[in-house]
Amino acid sequence: MTTMMRAEIAEQPAALRATLDALLPRVEEIRALAGRTRQLLFVARGTSDNAAVYGRYLIEARAGRLCSLAAPSIATTYRRRVDLDGVLAVALSQSGRTEEIVETLAWARDCGARTVAITNGGPESPLAAAADLALCTEAGEEKAVPATKTYTTQLAALAVLALGLGAEVDAGDLDRVPDALARLIDRPGDLDAVVEGLAEVTGVVVSGRGMAFSTALETALKLKEACYLHAMGLSYADLLHGPIAVVDELTPALLVAAGAGPTLAGTVALARRVTGAGARAYGVGGGTELAGAATAALNGPDLPEWVAPMGLIVPGQLLTEALARRRGLDPDSPRGLNKVTQTG
Fold first, then answer.
1. Mean of the pLDDT values across residues 35-47?
2. Non-local CB neighbours of 259 within 8 Å, separated by 6+ positions
3. For the residues 56-68, what does the mean pLDDT come to?
4. Phi-psi region for residue 21, left (φ > 0), alpha (ψ -120 to 50) or beta?
């Protein structure tokens, strides 16, 4: 039986094409809105927060603007006013109906920020209505509880946002992304071997750095949500500061990297350290270098580092769906979760 999650993973190439077609013509609108701002504040929770981590690395590394992640409780619980003059506040919510995120974006605007919404909820959603500019993704309805196509289209929207902020990248790279995802869906690599390697464990460490850090966080979240694993998402720099002690023969590592870029060598070195200590290291992306150092590996996209995260998450999604079924779980409806999460 094909799960809804698996079907929606397969819809991502089309969803990305539709989103890019809708948003790329709006680069000048972004540039005009952001012209008087100097830094960015991302407002998000859950999967959207992981997408924001990608936005932060991309915009700081390629557009040279300082970014930070908001603490919504400052607005919604402490109700403290903060001077946000010169700030571009970017709120991400797949549904556009998460009250905390809508309230925090309205707070940011009241504090002097220019505001952008990134949502799959459409222009009539509360979040879009609260923003100066709404970048609405074109993922279509997502029925499975674990986010797949709504996440990758958020990354696409953030890439377009980066273009509007003057990122030093080749915009033509975005044209390659949908086909790269389609190839990964057809040829994910050693999926069966990685599924079997994780089938009986209770925990896994998922690690990456830089642009790939968002993928590590999102993959860990998916493994928690749908497979009920104690999955820890960490930058490999943080992992090496102490938590690597938990990686052993019972707790493998899942290591994520683009096929090229400044963090690849460190990821490969970490894989060798893990396997050299007698533990298992499973690669995601990283080309032949990471695959050669890993116990088994999932393929990554043939894409430049700045757009690679849109493809790198696909093997993690496929792994989550297959591993959930292998463990006798329904990936479409994890216990205790709903599509729209409200926080008190």
1. 96
2. 285, 286, 287, 300, 301, 302, 303, 308
3. 98
4. alpha
Distance separating alpha carbons of residues 148 and 11, to the nearest angstrom: 9
Tell me, which fold does domain 4-169 have in CATH? Rossmann fold (3.40.50)
Q: Is the pTM of this model over 0.90?
A: yes
Q: Which CATH superfamily is domain 187-326 in?
A: Glucose-6-phosphate isomerase like protein; domain 1 (3.40.50.10490)
pLDDT value for 340: 55
Q: Which two tokens stand for residue 13?
A: 């190439």
Task: Give dist(CA 200, CA 326) in Å, integer.
Answer: 10
Give phi and psi for 189, each to the nearest 5.
Answer: 100, -150
The runs of H, that is alpha helices, within the chain are 4-10, 12-23, 27-34, 46-63, 72-76, 99-110, 126-130, 149-164, 177-186, 191-198, 213-227, 236-239, 264-276, 287-293, 308-326
Residue 73 has pLDDT above 60, yes or no: yes
At residue 338, does pLDDT exceed 70? no
Asked if 15 and 153 touch (Cβ cutoff 8 Å), the reply is: yes
> Which residue is listed with tokens 């190839």?
183
Spatial neighbors of 171 by CB under 8 A, at least 6 apart, are: 24, 163
Q: Give residue for tokens 């039986």.
A: 1
Which residues 6+ apart lie within 8 Å of 172 measured at CB? none
Q: Tell me if residue 143 is catalytic.
A: no
Cβ atoms < 10 Å from Cβ of 60: 15
In this structure, what are the phi and psi dihedrals at residue 123, rounded to the nearest 5 degrees?
-65, -15
